[in-house]
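Much of our argument rests on the idea that a fold can be written as discrete symbols. Part of our work consisted of pairing the sequence of a single chain with a tokenised description of its backbone. No coordinates are needed to read the tokens, only the vocabulary itself. The record that follows shows the chain in one-letter code together with its fold in token form.
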Amino acid sequence: MRRVVLAGAACLGVWTGAGWTGPGAIEAQAQTLRIGMAAEPTSADPQQYAAAPNSTLHNHVFESLVALDARLKAGPSLATAWSRRDDTTWVFDLREGVKFHNGQDFTAADVVFSFCRILNNEGELASSFSSIVRRLDRVEAEGPHRIVIGTRQPEPLLPADLSTLRIIPAGLVPARPIAFSLEDQCGGRGQPWPALAQFNDGSAAIGTGPFRLRHFGRSGVTELARHDGYWGETPHWAQVRLQPVTAAGPRLAGLLAGDHDVVEAPATGDIPRLRNNAAIGLAVAPTTRLIFLQLDQRNPAPFVNGGMAPNPLQDVRVRQALSLAIDRNAIASRVMDGLALPAAQFLPEGMFGTIPGLPVLPYDPARARALLAEAGYANGFSLTLHATNNRYVNDARVIQAIGQYFARIGVRAEVDAMPSNVFFGRRARREFSIPMGGWAASAEETLLFFRTWMASTDRERGVGGSNYGNWSHAAFDAAALTALTTMGEPEREQLLREASRIGLQEMPILPLHFESAIWAFRRGLTYAGRMDQQTLAQEIRPQ
């Protein structure tokens, strides 16, 4: 992996609205941090949908038992330590002296309540968090500061998984005994649980994190205030303003005009100019975020050949042809301006479960046309590509380029790029046939991607929750799902490599590239960036 790079010269000053002042003015004036976000959060509910903009908001306000650092290494948070009693029993020792924003003490009962509420969250999208909780067999308090978690099968990545499950106070509902139970959803049927609207209006948005939610602004500014009773390091900022500005041009213009202090994802074409601007600092971080196409295996597929059967994407030769039609090196160098790593497989080489020594997936349009003819589509067919136009780096440009590559092998491709708040809801309802997605691993292991995006969908087992293409392959499942319960690392790694080989041969998902995350900020600030692409005010500091 490439190292995080901080670009630019030394601190020159802070924009005040009347001009630039020296670094000594920071302490007096920088109590409010203004962040220009590249995409808007869908809600203030930390248990609703797993997406990077949501995590950016939620990880200011809420915490989990386990935290991931900027390099995706799991470490203590609300749990200070954990251990295994056996392959399916984990013990988490909880941090003492932690208080929620409303002054209530954090205890083991809040963990049980939070996991139960995830099971009963009617507003959850795409089984974002319940897929994890459904793999648990029991969650029990052993006193106020210890939780014992039993899993239905061995779960080697449980600590990393728990980093996504944020804790809310049990006092959000009228006092009643709550015991974890999958069979009856913790007795939750017909019982009151905090609703999405209560998080969005702030009444239920109570966490233990370094900031309190003052106002959630859907499509507008979200305001946070420092939690002075925070158990950890006190953040520098008294207030934080998160403002979605989904177009890169206006977002950068706001930074240059002094309306923002930090912005996410400036346009890659602007990076050379920004590197030469002494008033701007840059952070560039490699990420595990894979950009990919997911191919629909339903028959018929709604956006392939006008929704008429048969669906060409069910033929492996067609899927391979579409992959061969794409010049990943050209996309990385020209469309992404060199700020992406062309994909050879499903995570960058060197991560656990990847296959050593693979070259970038090949570009061979002549072979692609031959495979189409062999499959009976010498004259091609038609399809529609769906994508976001404001979520991933240069997403609209990337999907347009792919449409042009497909046209060169005789596949007539229309492109429909839309705002992320429209795209994700439609994709969750499986309305698309070839959506372009993005996903970042929360641990450096291919198992996470296979479990979520490629395994046959099994809601009870908590796998395949994002397998929107409905692909199912027995040999792939045998390798990936065996790895899911294999605690020994050498054995698990071999299984994951076998799953990778099958996935690259069958191509239900076409890996494209791995994004680099980019931030621009006014001089006088320092931010190292994160592999998960989150922008966390508690990690942004004055120089």
